[in-house]
Amino acid sequence: MATLVSSCCPFSCSTPSTPRPSPRFPLSSLPRVFSSSRSSFLFTYSARISLVHPLMSRSNPRSYPSVKASGENKKVLILNTNSGGHAVIGFYFAKELLGRGHEVTIMTVGDEKSDKMKKPPFNRFSEIVNGGGRTVWGDPTEVGKAVEEAAFDVVLENNGKDLETVRPVVDWAKSCGVKQFLYISSAGIYKPTDEPPHVEGDMVKVDASHIGAEEYIAKIFNSWAIFRPQYMIGSGNNKDCEEWFFDRIVRERPVPIPGSGMQLTNISHVRDLSSMLTLAVENPTAAIGNIFNCVSDRAVTLNGMAKLCAQAAGRPVNLLHYDPKAVGVDAKKAFPFRAMHFYAEPRAAKDILGWRCSTNLAEDLKERFEEYVKIGRDTKPMQFEIDDKIIETVNVPLAV
Amino acid sequence: MAGFSFSLAALHQNQPSFCLIPSSLSEFNGVRLCNSVQYKRKALHPKGALHVTASSAKKILIMGGTRFIGVFLSRILVKEGHQVTLFTRGKTPVTQQLPGESDEDYADFSSKILHLKGDRKDFDFVRSSLSAEGFDVVYDINGRAADEVEPILDALPKLEQYIYCSSAGVYLKSDVLPHFEIDAVDPKSRHKGKLETETLLDSKGVNWTSLRPVYIYGPLNYNPVEEWFFHRLKSGRPIPIPGSGLQITQLGHVKDLAKAFVQVLGNEKARRQVFNISGEKYVTFDGLARACAKAAGFPEPELVHYNPKDFDFGKKKSFPFRDQHYFASIDKAKSLLGWKPEFDLVGGLADSYNLDFGRGTFREDADFSVDDMILA
């Protein structure tokens, strides 16, 4: 079942039985609209879009937001993690699909009554229910039971990080006739490179646990697509991203940044990840057999992210660079992002799905800061133990 | 449905394969290393609309053309059947046989290329000589200031296209990258003459196209980019790199740039458009040092990092690149023009080495005085 046509160019095989949707030309540069009103960002980048391709015709039948390419409603099951940075993906994706007329069940791993469900996005699952979606809880080894043997066209696996966790889901999906299997992997599996960005097809770390899952999915399913995200911002995020910067900026604390702060990372608004997944669901023949870096098309330096957060907050920022090893702190606990270049680009999505990026950190962070203040987090008492340790020992010379 | 699934196992260990493709510019005889396709493309770019129809031969003027980009560009244009004139002061020989270029090809090219000798700063001469000749298309490869453009446009009221070699150096420095064509530009940059030229072209009714390369490299490069590394590698010296070496830059091969210039000729998609043109991938400073070594067959070099603020080098340049992140997305050119770079970094550097430095030719002698200050 798993064969490579050519060892030289594994991806250049043609598949005569999978006709391309036409037109293939990426003209779908119109802004996406979601059920939640976002008039401010429409204005922000509609001007940008017209500058990008002033001569491009808008007669693409896939013009957003109204018309679905395939025209048919899909029954989609999202198997969602109950914690961590990826949790919010399922939340947005569910709402977007529902807004476009698909049927959605979101199955969260674990127990509905667990404490984890008191955190976002789970504490906002009523939004999914109100949108016509179904929310269930259960164990990935017993998906059928959790969904009460309902049938689905598409499954998005947004939980497992290794083969052991993903396999029962894949097996179940295959056994009950699921046609398309989508998987949220991670851009973290790319091997560090001298030549950024990470592009689909680049080498991955041999010991990355996601690989086993990716390979199994590709082996079992014909119509599969794999998505490798990085970091994301967005309302309902389960894991701090921009909040980490806001916490320090509003309290007029220095923002400690490992290394020079020149390291590039990729921070997307989760709506972009959701729109990419939606394109895959609605254009399965285009998506089939592909890996997609599920990220925005711009990288930002760590220093840049701190500055953008400060601008969004309308406050000054004090950057404090340090060497985690010299200071003696756990780099993972001290800072929300990897301290090295971590930079993938969404080339496959743009080229194959006609996907367009809408993330505009300068604008998006303003909205994020408004919510940050609205929920009162700016005045919440907080401890900064690790920061304090860094600040104390900052006279250690920088290794970078 | 005869669908297929294929193993991700090989996908995950997708090494760039080494294909020897006969160069479409066969006279240059370089060995090109090609990457296998990065991902599965469902369809090739549609033909016709995106491909230049070189069916009608044009009378083309190249401002410059005897030093680097134009050397390669003019050859392609002549081969495609256009009548090509080079406007230069004649300081550099109008034609030179290139390394790897066959005698026949060179003879053919030399017999067909035309020369218009003059100083483009002599605006009256430009006006009179160009209007006397009449040209369909102008490639402005060496223009630096907007005032150089006016006399050309005045002299050629029926000009079909003005194709300009600008620079990604016009972009305003940013923490958010890569640079896209829509990004803010810097009116105070060192390249503001290029920016002013683009603005002037846009204000006139002429059909213009502007290409913005990043760092250009390849055989005959007169900017010591790869040459700077090759000198040090050859001498077995450590390579001094400012800062962390993590700064990210981008190199584009001159032959790929030449192809892009050809691909916009008569191309409606390029009408009054700007395109970034460079390599597919970017590279860190450290990575570039390693890539040069790999391309030229030297052992992995010792890299020495230093803080440039600790030194005063006077007017001497300590490193061939801006000390900052500097790279641009080539997405627009790829999707609108159907152009893409043929050379990957190591392959392109090998081409440059094999045809230039590796044969003992270079533009500037090695000068390690700055290195010695750093390494002391």
If you had to describe this structure to a student in words, what would you say it looks like?
The complex is a heterodimer of chains A (400) and B (376). With 400 residues, chain A is an alpha/beta fold. Chain A contains 15 helices and 13 strands. Chain A folds into 2 domains: 1-23 and 236-265 and 300-342 and 360-400, no CATH class; 24-61 and 69-230 and 267-298 and 343-359, Rossmann fold (3-Layer(aba) Sandwich), CATH 3.40.50.720. Chain A has helices at residues 39-52, 87-99, 126-130, 143-146, 163-175, 209-220, 242-250, 270-282, 284-287, 302-313, 324-327, 331-334, 347-353, 361-374, 385-392, and strands at residues 75-80, 103-109, 134-138, 154-158, 180-184, 223-229, 231-233, 255-258, 264-265, 267-269, 290-294, 299-301, 319-322. In chain A, helix 5 (163-175) links the parallel strand 4 and strand 5 (180-184). Residues 1-67 and 396-400 of chain A have low confidence and may be disordered. In chain B, 48% of the residues are buried. In chain B, 30% of the residues lie in helices and 15% in strands. A 7-stranded parallel beta sheet of chain B has the order 3-2-1-4-5-7-12, sandwiched between helices. Chain B has a two-stranded parallel ribbon with strand order 8-11. Chain B is built from 12 helices and 14 strands. Chain B starts with 7 loop residues before the first helix and ends with a helix. Chains A and B meet through helix 1, helix 6, strand 12, helix 10 and helix 13 of A and helix 1, strand 6, strand 13, helix 9 and helix 10 of B.
